[in-house]
Amino acid sequence: MTNKITTLFKIQFPIIQGGMVWVSGWKLASAVSNAGGLGLIGAGSMYPDVLREHIQKCKKATDKPFGVNVPMLYPDIEKIMDIIVGEGVKIVFTSAGNPKNWTSFLKEKGITVVHVVSSVKFALKAEAAGVDAVVCEGFEAGGHNGREETTTFTLVPMVKEQVKIPVIAAGGIASGRGMLAAMVLGADGVQIGSRFAATNESSAHQNFKNTIIDVKDGDTHLTLKELAPVRLIKNRFYNEVQELYQKNPTNEQLKELLGRARAKNGMFEGDLDNGELEIGQIAGLIHEIKPVKEVFKDIIDEFNAVKALIHSF
Predict the structure, then answer these.
(1) What whole-number distance in Å separates Cα of residue 27 and Cα of residue 39?
(2) Residue 80 is part of a domain; what is its CATH number?
(3) Are strands 189-192 and 91-95 parallel, antiparallel or unpaired?
(4) Which residues in the chain show pLDDT less than 70?
(5) Domain limits at 182?
(6) 264-299, pLDDT tens digit by residue?
(7) The whole model's pTM is what?
(8) What is the Cβ-side half-sphere exposure of residue 25, based on CA atoms within 13 angstroms?
(9) What is the radius of gyration, based on Cα positions, of the chain?
(10) DSSP symbols for 148-193
(11) How many CB atoms lie within 10 A of CB 218?
(12) Cα dihedral sign for 210, 213, 215, 220?
């Protein structure tokens, strides 16, 4: 399978793993890259020295391309970028910030840069900043989302109509059918998060993985929009947030309830009651924890089968 994305990243399949906090360590990233996709280490939940360790271990675990996902609101962003350059990482996905801030710096070092966007406006700004591709993430996605609440399959064709650089679809994609649908609408590749969170190689806690495969439609919700919109599984913490909303809280009160390390407590340490459990709506279609290699086979086999079926009409 050869297209703009496989050529850009020098990978076999146009499938990129989401750089999810507390989930996307070197084991997951290297497994995805070894399976023919592009693995991403999620720097958003790592101190600089921890990121360096994950990059070094990933280089030992795969000789295939991999990258690092960097939320640009990270407090130690300068250290993170220096480590990425120093360790010879060739691909960086940026999010949660202005792509102008770091794109030129990275590209001058020979690094391929991709920026995550939630609207046509931000896609155009990313293209103007010089990124090599954009990820169009719909609000079906787990974790932090844009405020626009535009769905993936609405956003992708609108962005494709306006930009000349490759477009990657993200949010609500976990199968070969979803991948094919995204590409029919104009995507050159897909970024998949939730499906890879529920794999053997994911660094998520087993409690969280087990919860993912129990999720049904309606079990997640986008909330905390006043701070940073985030899609969560409905648990005790989520219910506390909703109860606070009934009192018309200030942003300070919401921050006080949120506290610190909620995402780590939930996804990495397995506190299913008091932690943030970030996952996408597509979790309702994830029913089994599998090795990454099997997930890839399922996606590609289904993609090819459905594509052949459509061609037979």
Answers:
(1) 9
(2) 3.20.20.70
(3) unpaired
(4) none
(5) 4-204
(6) 999 999 999 999 999 999 999 999 999 999 999 999
(7) 0.95
(8) 18
(9) 18
(10) S---HHHHHHHHHHH-SS-EEEESS--SHHHHHHHHHTT-SEEEE-
(11) 9
(12) positive
